[in-house]
Design goal:
The chain is mainly alpha-helical. Helix content is about 60%, strand content about 0%. It contains 21 helices and four strands. Strands 1-3 form a two-stranded antiparallel sheet. A two-stranded parallel ribbon has the order 2-4. The radius of gyration is 21 Å and the shape is globular.
C-alpha cells in the first residue's frame, strides 16, 4: 500500500482554495497572507464569524442547544464527522446542515472524503513516490475499514488520522451515494496525481486541472442532488454545466491567490497566458511589470467569466430551496471577488477581499434566481466600467460581459419554481445560526482537548 499508513480501530474555485472578505470596517487588504484556507470558503466563513454587530447576549447558549438537539439522532461516528466538518470548515458546516433530508449526510461525507484527498495532495512532506500511488488508490481506502494515515503535517491532518470514522459513515450511506463519491474520488485522485509532476501549461490544461480539482466536485454534487430525488435527474446528467460551476469557482480562487501561491512555490496560472507578458510567473509581482501583470490578470478574469452563462443555466434548473442556496451563494461570492480582482494591482501585492458586510448581504440575498441574476448583472457592470481602452483582451471581455448581460435578463416566467418549507430569508438566517452553533461546539472542544488537538477551525 502506498504511503505511510496505520491500521487503527477508528479516529473538503470547490475544495482547494477560498473566497475571502475584509475585516469589519472595510480597510485595505492586508499584505500578510493567511495560510491554509481552502476552496470557496473564506467569504462564507468570515460572514458567519460572530461579532458584536449581530451576536445578542446568550446567543451561543441557544445556538448550541439547537445544534446538540439536532445531533441527538446521530451515531457517534456521524457526530464525529460533523465535528471534523466544523473543524475544517465552519462555513461549509453551516450550508451543508441547511440541506434537506439524507442529502445533508451524503454531502458532509463527500466533503470530508475530498478534504482528506486534498490534504494528501497538499502535504509537501510526502515524497512523490508515495504520494502518487496514494492519490491513485485513495478511492479504495473508502472500503478498507482500518486505513488511516498518521504522518501528515497538514493543518487538516485529523481527517487522515481518523479516516476510519469517515469511511465507516461512507459505507453507511445508500449505494447510490457511495457510487457517486467513490467514482469522483477515483477520478479526482488520478487527476491530482497527473498534475503533481507537470505544470499547467496551456489554457486547455488549465481547464483540465480545474476540472480535476473542482469541476468534478460540481459533477459529484449534482449527481448527489439527483440521487436524493430533491432535483431532477437532468441536473445530475448534465456534467458540462456542473463542471462549469466548479471551474468558475476554482479559476476565481486561482486568480485571486496569485501572490500566496508563488510565495510558497506553487504555480497555477497557465503558462500560455503569463508567458505573453513575462519571462517568469513570479516576475508579474515586480512593480515595473505592473502594466503587463494587469493585462495577464484581465485575460484570466475574462476566461473565468466565460463560465458564468453556464452557472446561470445550472442555477435556473434547481427546484429545491436548500440546494439552490447551497449552490448559489459561492457563485455570487465568486463574481464579487472577480469584480474586485479585475485590473486591481493588489492581486500582485497582497490579498484581495470582499468586505464582511458585502458577504453577509450576498448570503442573505442569493436565495432566488431573480436576485442571483441581479447580483451577477451588477458585478458584471462593475467589471465593464473598469475595462480600459488599451487592454489587450478588451474585445473578448466586452463580448463575454454582453453575453452575461443577455443571460441575466432571462424572462422570470421561464424560471422553475423551487420547493421549500421555509422562507429564503429564514434559510439564510439558519445558515448563520448553524455556523455560530458549530463555532461554539468547536470552541468548547478546543478547551476540553487542548490547543494541540485542534488543527481545523476554518
Amino acid at each position: 500500500m502506498a504511503g505511510t499508513c496505520c491500521k487503527c480501530p477508528a479516529s473538503l474555485s470547490v475544495l482547494r482554495r477560498s473566497l475571502s472578505v475584509a475585516p469589519r470596517g472595510g480597510g485595505s487588504a492586508p499584505r500578510s497572507l493567511l495560510p491554509g484556507w481552502r476552496v470557496g470558503e473564506r467569504g462564507l466563513q468570515e460572514a458567519c464569524r460572530p461579532s458584536s454587530a449581530f451576536r445578542p447576549a446568550g446567543s451561543y447558549r441557544r445556538s448550541s442547544f439547537l445544534c446538540l438537539s439536532y445531533q441527538e439522532s446521530m451515531s457517534d461516528s456521524l457526530r464525529t464527522c460533523y465535528l471534523y466538518l466544523n473543524q475544517t470548515s465552519r462555513s461549509f458546516a453551516a450550508v451543508i446542515q441547511a440541506l434537506d433530508g439524507e442529502l445533508r449526510h451524503a454531502v458532509c461525507i463527500f466533503y470530508l472524503v475530498l478534504r482528506a484527498l486534498d490534504t494528501v495532495e497538499d502535504d509537501m512532506t510526502i515524497p512523490l513516490d508515495k504520494k502518487v500511488p496514494m492519490l491513485n488508490d485513495f478511492h479504495t481506502y473508502l472500503y478498507q475499514d482500518a486505513w488511516c494515515f498518521t504522518e501528515s503535517q497538514e493543518k487538516d491532518r485529523q481527517v487522515l488520522a481518523d479516516f476510519p470514522t469517515i469511511s465507516l459513515e461512507f459505507r453507511n450511506l445508500a449505494q447510490e451515494y457511495r457510487d457517486v463519491i467513490s467514482d469522483i474520488c477515483h477520478r479526482m485522485g488520478g487527476g491530482m496525481a497527473e498534475f503533481l509532476e507537470k505544470k499547467v501549461g496551456s489554457m486547455k490544461e488549465w481547464d483540465l486541472y480545474c476540472h480535476y480539482v473542482a469541476g468534478l466536485v460540481g459533477v459529484g454534487l449534482s449527481q448527489l442532488f439527483s440521487a436524493s430525488q430533491l432535483e431532477h435527474p437532468e441536473v445530475g446528467r448534465d456534467s458540462e454545466l456542473a463542471n462549469s460551476m466548479g471551474l468558475f469557482l476554482q479559476k476565481t480562487n486561482i486568480i485571486r491567490d496569485y501572490l500566496e501561491d508563488i510565495q510558497v512555490g506553487r504555480a497555477f496560472w497557465p503558462q500560455e497566458a503569463w508567458s505573453q507578458f513575462a519571462d517568469r510567473l513570479e516576475d508579474l509581482a515586480h512593480p515595473e511589470k505592473l502594466e503587463s501583470a494587469l493585462s495577464c490578470l484581465n485575460l484570466l478574469v475574462t476566461d473565468a467569466l466565460r463560465h458564468v452563462p453556464d452557472v446561470l443555466a445550472y442555477l435556473s434548473r434547481l427546484r429545491n430551496q436548500s440546494v439552490f442556496n447551497f449552490c448559489a451563494i459561492p457563485q455570487v461570492m465568486a463574481i464579487a471577488t472577480l469584480s474586485s480582482c479585475y485590473n486591481n494591482p493588489m492581486v500582485f501585492k497582497g490579498v484581495v477581499k470582499i468586505r464582511k458586510g458585502q458577504a453577509v448581504t450576498l448570503m442573505m440575498e442569493a436565495t432566488n434566481m431573480s436576485a442571483v441574476q441581479t447580483i451577477i448583472s451588477q458585478y458584471s457592470q462593475e467589471i465593464l466600467q473598469k475595462v480600459s481602452e488599451g487592454d489587450p483582451t478588451r474585445d473578448e471581455t466586452l463580448h463575454i460581459l454582453a453575453v452575461i448581460k443577455e443571460k441575466s435578463a432571462v424572462s422570470q416566467s421561464s424560471l422553475p419554481a423551487r420547493t421549500h418549507h421555509m422562507s429564503p430569508m429564514y434559510l439564510s438566517a439558519a445558515m448563520l445560526l448553524a455556523a455560530l452553533s458549530w463555532q461554539y461546539l468547536s470552541t468548547t472542544a478546543a478547551q476540553a482537548q487542548g490547543p494541540a488537538d485542534m488543527h481545523g477551525g476554518q
